[in-house]
Structure prediction request, 135 residues.
Amino acid sequence: MAILSADVNICQHSGVTILNLVGEWSDEMQQRMREMLLALAKSAHLEVIVNISRTMLVPVSDPSWWKTLEANLQCLIAHHATVNIVGTDAQLQLASRNWLVRSLRWSTSEEEAVCRIRGVMLGSAGIKSRAWFDE
Prediction:
């Protein structure tokens, strides 16, 4: 079953803010992502995960896409926020070939990204909670 529309939403996982991008990548999704990243920066969210693992047709092999993504993330990075990107194995492989990506931190799951941000070993016991926010 194909996802026809693009959705951008925010949730929290163990106190870390997650920006989920779901659906087909488009200019509209990119604009909504940018607006939400700016809102997160203004509200001082300093631990953020951008999850693109459920986004289809992301142009990860295009260097200009990476420049745009890094420019969008600068609003958080300028405030010394910890930013991690969650992607699929295929997205990670394409990203690792791109020299522009070395400044970004990647994970293959939200749990891995949260553990990396929190400084906790993946698979250790601990409280994990998830909360979704309405726009």
